[in-house]
Amino acid sequence: MAEHPRALWVLAFVAFIESSVFPIPPDVIMIPMIIARPNRAFVIAGVALVASVLGGLLGYAIGALAYDTIGQPILAALGKGDAMADFNTRFNDLGFWAVLTAGVTPFPYKVITIMSGWTGMPLGTFIATSILARAVRFFIVAALLRTFGAPIRDFIERRLGLMFSLLVVLLIGGFAAVKFL
Predict the structure, then answer these.
(1) How far is CA 34 from CA 46, 75, 129, in A?
(2) Which positions ≥6 away from 9 have C-beta within 8 Å?
(3) Which of 32, 94, 160, 168 has its CA 20 to 30 A from that of 138?
(4) How far lies 83's CA from each of 102, 107, 138, in Å?
(5) Are 142 and 128 in contact (CB under 8 A)?
(6) Quick one: which of 8, 118, 164 has its CA closest to 110?
(7) Are the CB atoms for 33 and 89 separated by under 8 Å?
(8) Largest Cα–Cα distance of the chain, in whole Å?
(9) Mean pLDDT over all residues of the chain?
(10) What is the chain's Cα-based Rg?
(11) What is the pLDDT of residues 133-153, one digit of tens each?
């Protein structure tokens, strides 16, 4: 599918639905597409970014408008049902970091999109943070694949999520150290 003329549309669809309900990340399609056409790496990442943020808005709407009928069953199916009440009380205080973390790490972004709508996170904060997080994730993958090609694929698939997670921990730790020192 990576070289199919409609591959970008398929990527857009997968990135869109992954941000609200679908369990498979767009990387499954994005990585082979970039390997097949490295000169289009940043176009491919841009399509994934736009579709993912738009899909995140669907997730936000599910949380805001249809949490009880749609959002709660999705989160329960993902094993996140029990922790919701406790999560809601702390979420908006850490909303920027929650969206950023879910947007770049292996944590399911759809959980955060739905929770953002449910908790009433300011829409502007949600959109800006989603753009930042998803751009970092997709454009770093695109840059690595464009620069190093297929040999970097194993690192991306096995280790990049861990690297992003460590980066987030370091950022949060750095801000905490500055605040308390």
Answers:
(1) 12, 31, 25
(2) none
(3) 94
(4) 16, 15, 29
(5) no
(6) 118
(7) no
(8) 55
(9) 83
(10) 17
(11) 999 889 988 998 999 988 878
Question: Which DSSP symbol is given to 24?
Answer: S
Q: What local confidence, expressed as pLDDT, does residue 84 receive? A: 66
Token pair in block for residue 24: 């498979």
Q: Distances from the Cα of 178 to the Cαs of 35, 131, 173, 181, in angstroms? A: 41, 26, 9, 5
Token pair recorded at residue 135: 């751009």
Place of tokens 């082979």: 32
Residue the block writes with tokens 């369990």: 23
Alpha-carbon separation of residue 106 from 11, 12, 70, 88, 176 (angstroms): 18, 19, 23, 21, 23
Confidence of residue 89 (pLDDT cuts 50, 70, 90): low
Amino acid at 103: G
What pLDDT is attached to residue 85? 62
